[in-house]
Amino acid sequence: MPRRILQGTVVSDKSDKTVIVRVERRVTHPLYKKIIRRSKKYAAHDENNAYKAGDMVAIRECAPISKRKCWEVIGTAEAGDREGAQP
User: Fold this and answer.
1) Euclidean distance between CA atoms 11 and 28, whole angstroms
2) Into how many domains does the chain fold?
3) Which residues have C-beta within 8 Å of that of residue 60, sequence separation ≥ 6?
4) What is the largest CA-CA distance in the chain?
5) Residue 56 falls within a domain, yes or no?
6) What are the pLDDT digits (tens) for 1-18?
7) Quick one: CA dihedral 47, 53, 55, 57, positive or negative?
8) Do residues 50 and 57 lie in contact, with contact meaning Cβ atoms separated by under 8 Å?
9) Is 23 contained in some domain?
10) Quick one: which of 6, 37, 38, 63 has the most CB atoms within 10 Å?
11) Within a domain: residue 29?
12) 84 belongs to a structural domain
Protein backbone atom coordinates (compact mmCIF):
# COMPACT_ATOMS: atom_id res chain seq x y z
CA MET A 1 0.00 0.00 0.00
CA PRO A 2 1.50 3.38 -0.93
CA ARG A 3 2.33 5.77 1.87
CA ARG A 4 0.63 9.15 1.81
CA ILE A 5 2.76 12.29 1.53
CA LEU A 6 1.45 15.59 2.89
CA GLN A 7 3.00 19.01 3.20
CA GLY A 8 2.46 21.55 5.91
CA THR A 9 3.98 24.05 8.32
CA VAL A 10 5.79 23.18 11.55
CA VAL A 11 3.89 24.83 14.41
CA SER A 12 5.78 23.32 17.36
CA ASP A 13 9.22 21.82 17.87
CA LYS A 14 9.29 21.67 21.67
CA SER A 15 9.32 17.87 21.97
CA ASP A 16 12.47 15.81 21.47
CA LYS A 17 12.61 14.18 18.00
CA THR A 18 9.01 15.29 17.28
CA VAL A 19 7.51 18.22 15.42
CA ILE A 20 3.85 19.16 15.12
CA VAL A 21 2.89 19.89 11.51
CA ARG A 22 -0.30 21.74 10.49
CA VAL A 23 -1.63 20.57 7.12
CA GLU A 24 -4.25 22.78 5.45
CA ARG A 25 -6.68 21.69 2.78
CA ARG A 26 -9.34 23.55 0.85
CA VAL A 27 -12.85 22.14 0.67
CA THR A 28 -16.14 23.38 -0.74
CA HIS A 29 -18.87 24.02 1.80
CA PRO A 30 -21.72 21.57 1.08
CA LEU A 31 -24.52 24.14 1.35
CA TYR A 32 -22.97 27.53 0.54
CA LYS A 33 -20.47 26.29 -2.09
CA LYS A 34 -17.78 28.61 -0.77
CA ILE A 35 -14.22 27.32 -0.59
CA ILE A 36 -13.07 27.17 3.03
CA ARG A 37 -9.82 26.09 4.67
CA ARG A 38 -9.65 23.14 7.03
CA SER A 39 -6.52 22.21 8.94
CA LYS A 40 -5.32 19.25 10.95
CA LYS A 41 -2.22 18.79 13.09
CA TYR A 42 0.02 15.74 12.83
CA ALA A 43 2.86 14.66 15.12
CA ALA A 44 5.83 13.74 12.91
CA HIS A 45 9.16 12.10 13.73
CA ASP A 46 12.21 14.38 13.32
CA GLU A 47 15.26 12.26 14.15
CA ASN A 48 17.85 15.07 14.24
CA ASN A 49 15.68 17.91 15.58
CA ALA A 50 16.48 19.74 12.33
CA TYR A 51 13.20 21.59 11.76
CA LYS A 52 11.97 24.66 13.59
CA ALA A 53 8.59 26.40 13.86
CA GLY A 54 7.60 28.08 10.62
CA ASP A 55 9.39 25.64 8.28
CA MET A 56 7.47 24.14 5.35
CA VAL A 57 8.01 20.37 5.44
CA ALA A 58 6.82 17.23 3.69
CA ILE A 59 5.72 14.34 5.89
CA ARG A 60 5.21 10.68 4.99
CA GLU A 61 3.08 8.03 6.63
CA CYS A 62 5.08 5.31 8.41
CA ALA A 63 4.69 2.52 10.93
CA PRO A 64 3.59 3.71 14.39
CA ILE A 65 6.48 5.12 16.41
CA SER A 66 4.43 5.99 19.49
CA LYS A 67 0.79 6.40 20.51
CA ARG A 68 0.24 9.56 18.45
CA LYS A 69 3.15 9.50 16.03
CA CYS A 70 2.84 7.60 12.73
CA TRP A 71 4.33 10.21 10.36
CA GLU A 72 7.95 11.09 9.59
CA VAL A 73 9.48 14.23 8.14
CA ILE A 74 11.13 13.55 4.78
CA GLY A 75 12.46 17.03 4.04
CA THR A 76 11.60 20.63 3.36
CA ALA A 77 8.81 21.41 0.91
CA GLU A 78 8.81 24.29 -1.51
CA ALA A 79 5.65 26.38 -1.89
CA GLY A 80 4.84 25.04 -5.38
CA ASP A 81 6.15 21.51 -4.86
CA ARG A 82 3.28 19.08 -4.29
CA GLU A 83 5.40 15.96 -3.72
CA GLY A 84 7.85 17.51 -1.28
CA ALA A 85 11.44 16.40 -0.99
CA GLN A 86 12.53 13.00 -2.21
CA PRO A 87 13.31 10.41 0.48
Assistant:
1) 25
2) 1
3) 3, 4, 5, 71, 72, 74, 87
4) 45
5) yes
6) 789 999 999 999 999 999
7) positive
8) no
9) yes
10) 6
11) yes
12) no
Which amino acid, residue 42?
Y
55-82 residue pLDDT tens: 999 999 999 999 999 999 999 987 655 5
pTM (predicted TM-score)? 0.84
3-class state of residue 22 by DSSP: strand
Q: What is the CATH number of the domain that holds 70?
A: 2.40.50.140
Q: Is the predicted pLDDT of residue 84 greater than 50, yes or no?
A: no
What type of residue is 54?
G
- Burial status of residue 73 (CB atoms within 10 A of its CB: 0-12, 13-18, 19 or more): buried
Q: Which domain holds residue 37?
A: 5-76
Angle at 41 between CA 23 and CA 6, to 5 degrees: 35
